[in-house]
């Protein structure tokens, strides 16, 4: 019997009833399954960007995904439908939206553009990344009562050993799952070769990291399996320790090699109760609800010793912690009115948060003098902005409601989907001694910040061709949508610095950022031959940017006063395309392409967050026993940047082409589902730069320090039972 062609599942654009599925459904959403993640050896967003999805990037400067040229708080991440916060403060612009382990995932949905704002609410201006964790039924196949998956391997990108195990069992109508994973390694390699100390160094700082995660689920189904009740508990933690050898230290300076260690700890915990219902033809066809508690905590650490100024130990522990309590839910009802069919989705998101920030510190500074300012040998103690909170404790509330109706006409070949979401939020500061007694000398408590927004969306789809011989389906689509992004707590209330140095201050009167955009395109075919082509154009208003409020001098001689303001109007447009074609028995070709162009309309300059034109092409061969793939990631040069000098200087990145190859083998398919896989990435050891991963402004290190990994090898062994 002939073997079926390989078909990589990359262009599925509709949910299957799982958390987040109905909310991200649309023509600009692509899905990557667990099988595809394994086949491409994807264990990070950077892997996904280099091997599967062109046009996205992971910005390691702020730990966020970049979609359509936007990142940070302008891109939303959800885990099992639960919103992930973008936690930053005036000391550190790095967040933790990637605080999940890829080996715990079942699917990954990537929504490009702001249309998700009509169902997801705040934060989806650039798009959304929605991941779903493994369910027991992902491992238990057919009539089995037990199943499992184990994987281990090594990745030379960061010299990491990793492993994961998941087991699931069924007892009548109740299913159980336990999953655990670990990853231990070092620094992410780059293309640098200078191993000196200081600003000329181009190889990364030495790093040791430990990462682990645990996931537990219980699902109970009704006898007809229309109802599912679930309990989920999850924990993820990662600890990084960095021996700093870059410009912060020097052999004869205040901070010296071997005596300046940085660290970053990220921890996410959650417990959630879920309910899922699906029974077509009932009073309600589908329903989903999640009640959850989530805790996210990030600590930025320094342990050092000062040799010249204020001699002695120097330590910092800056902590941000958010507790969130929330409820998400939606209903779906299908019905007909005359010639029209309707699919109505009605949903809500309710959320309460508690956010606290505190910086602990250790220094050899004496008691502050009566004048309030240190002088002489202890002048540096004026910068001892620690053992304090840089913002009040903040209690947040958010309420969102959305309603959409997919109206089908002409036997459902023409579909019009109007919809809207309404959001209201409030951030309410609470006074604490750690804040009111801080070195920035706050006067009173800042006011609450509250606002509301409507996020409408209208989508039109027409099936030009249905079930044709060569191209199964051809559907043209167009959609218009608006979205918004509420200011972060740091932008509203951050207050860091002090008299005699500088001041970084938030603005509680900030307005939300907004988007207004269109997507027009066509999608066609199926897994054997299919793809999509999209043109998008979006205007943004009230971009929040940090500006110089007061020049250095007076009470703040070191840097003056800086803070966020609503300043910019921006425009981003471009093209995206995906294609896959099983062109012969066991052969598959696939490609992904993205071109994005963005400008600040206030001053007619380019946006430094916009990536260059990119593409991924691959050819794969596979049988039941073995398979192989060769691929290339291509990028054009990026010369369109905002400025050539100063703090807004953008990085001009050269173009590149990197080539990859991977192969897998199942040695005993008749006996055990055991698979061995090896991949070699950037085969020709090309030195290249991910433009959006290079800091804006004057670079603190020599240029090659910011380059991407050279040739790397990843080997994995996977066993499913």
Automatic annotation (TrEMBL):
Gene Ontology MF term list: heme transmembrane transporter activity; siderophore uptake transmembrane transporter activity
Start-end of Low complexity biased regions: 21-31
GO cellular component labels: cell outer membrane
Protein's name according to its UniProt entry: TonB-dependent receptor
Composition bias, Polar residues: 430-439
Membrane topology type: Multi-pass membrane protein
Subcellular localization, as worded in the UniProt entry: Cell outer membrane
Keywords: Cell outer membrane, Membrane, Receptor, Signal, TonB box, Transmembrane, Transmembrane beta strand, Transport
Domain TonB-dependent receptor-like beta-barrel: 237-683
Record-linked PROSITE patterns: TONB_DEPENDENT_REC_3
Chain segments carrying region Disordered: 18-38, 429-450
Annotated source species: Bosea vaviloviae
Keyword Metal-binding in record: no
Protein's GO biological process: siderophore transmembrane transport
Main location: membrane
């Amino acid at each position: 019997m002939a073997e079926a062609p390989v078909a990589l599942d990359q262009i599925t654009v509709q949910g299957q009833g799982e958390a987040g599925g109905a909310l991200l459904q649309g023509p600009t959403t692509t899905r990557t399954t667990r099988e595809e993640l394994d086949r491409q050896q994807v264990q990070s967003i950077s892997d996904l960007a280099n091997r599967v999805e062109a046009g996205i990037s992971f910005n390691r400067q702020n730990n966020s995904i970049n979609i359509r040229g936007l990142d940070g708080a302008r891109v939303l991440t959800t885990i099992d439908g639960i919103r992930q916060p973008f936690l930053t403060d005036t000391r550190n612009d790095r967040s933790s939206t990637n605080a999940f382990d890829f080996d715990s995932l079942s699917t990954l949905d990537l929504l490009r553009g702001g249309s998700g704002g009509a169902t997801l609410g705040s934060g989806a201006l650039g798009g959304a990344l929605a991941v779903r964790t493994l369910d027991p039924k992902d491992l238990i196949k057919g009539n089995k009562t037990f199943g499992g998956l184990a994987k281990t391997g090594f990745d030379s990108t960061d010299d990491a050993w990793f492993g994961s195990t998941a087991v699931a069992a069924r007892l009548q109508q109740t299913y159980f799952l336990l999953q655990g994973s670990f990853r231990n390694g070092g620094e992410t390699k780059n293309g640098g070769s200078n191993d000196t100390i200081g600003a000329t160094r181009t190889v990364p700082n030495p790093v040791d990291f430990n990462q682990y995660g645990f996931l537990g689920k219980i699902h109970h189904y009704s006898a007809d399996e229309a109802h599912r009740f679930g309990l989920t508990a999850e924990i993820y933690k990662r600890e990084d320790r960095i021996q700093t050898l870059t410009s912060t230290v020097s052999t004869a300076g205040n901070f010296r090699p071997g005596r300046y260690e940085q660290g970053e700890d990220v921890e996410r915990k959650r417990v959630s109760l879920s309910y899922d219902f699906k029974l077509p033809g009932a009073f309600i066809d589908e329903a989903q609800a999640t009640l959850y508690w989530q805790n996210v905590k990030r600590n930025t650490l320094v342990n050092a010793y000062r040799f010249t100024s204020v001699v002695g130990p120097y330590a910092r522990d800056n902590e941000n912690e958010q507790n969130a309590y929330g409820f998400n839910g939606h209903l779906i009802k299908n019905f007909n009115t005359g010639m029209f069919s309707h699919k109505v989705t009605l949903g809500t998101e309710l959320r309460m948060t508690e956010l606290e920030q505190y910086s602990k510190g250790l220094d050899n500074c004496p008691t502050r003098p009566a004048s309030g300012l240190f002088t002489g040998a202890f002048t540096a103690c004026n910068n001892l902005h620690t053992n304090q909170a840089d913002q009040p404790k903040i209690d947040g509330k958010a309420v969102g409601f959305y309603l959409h109706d997919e109206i089908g006409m002409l036997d459902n070949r023409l579909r019009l989907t109007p919809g809207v979401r309404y959001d209201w939020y409030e951030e309410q500061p609470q006074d604490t001694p750690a804040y009111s007694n801080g070195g920035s000398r706050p006067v009173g408590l800042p006011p609450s910040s509250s606002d509301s927004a409507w996020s409408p969306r209208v989508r039109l789809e027409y099936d030009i061709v249905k079930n044709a011989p060569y191209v199964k389906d051809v559907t043209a689509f167009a959609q218009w949508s608006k979205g918004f992004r509420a200011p972060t707590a740091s932008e509203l209330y951050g207050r860091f610095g002090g008299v005699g140095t500088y001041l970084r201050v938030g603005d509680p009167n900030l307005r939300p950022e907004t988007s207004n955009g269109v997507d027009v395109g066509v999608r066609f075919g199926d897994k054997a031959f299919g793809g999509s082509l999209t043109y998008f154009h979006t205007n943004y208003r009230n971009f929040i940017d940090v500006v110089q409020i007061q020049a250095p001098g007076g009470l703040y001689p070191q840097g003056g006063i800086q803070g966020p303001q609503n300043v910019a109007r921006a425009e981003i447009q471009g093209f995206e395309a995906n294609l896959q074609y099983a062109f012969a028995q066991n052969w598959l070709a696939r490609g992904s392409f993205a071109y994005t162009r963005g400008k600040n309309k206030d001053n007619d300059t380019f946006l430094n967050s916009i990536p260059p034109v990119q593409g991924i092409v691959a050819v794969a061969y596979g049988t039941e026993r073995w398979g192989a793939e060769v691929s290339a990631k291509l990028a054009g040069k990026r010369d369109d940047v905002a400025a050539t000098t100063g703090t807004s200087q953008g990085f001009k990145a050269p173009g590149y082409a990197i080539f990859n190859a991977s192969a897998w083998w199942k040695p005993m398919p008749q006996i055990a589902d055991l698979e061995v896989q090896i991949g070699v990435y950037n085969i020709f050891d090309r030195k290249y730069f991910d433009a959006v991963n290079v800091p804006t402004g004057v670079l603190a290190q020599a240029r090659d320090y910011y380059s991407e990994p050279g040739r790397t090898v990843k080997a994995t062994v996977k066993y499913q039972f």
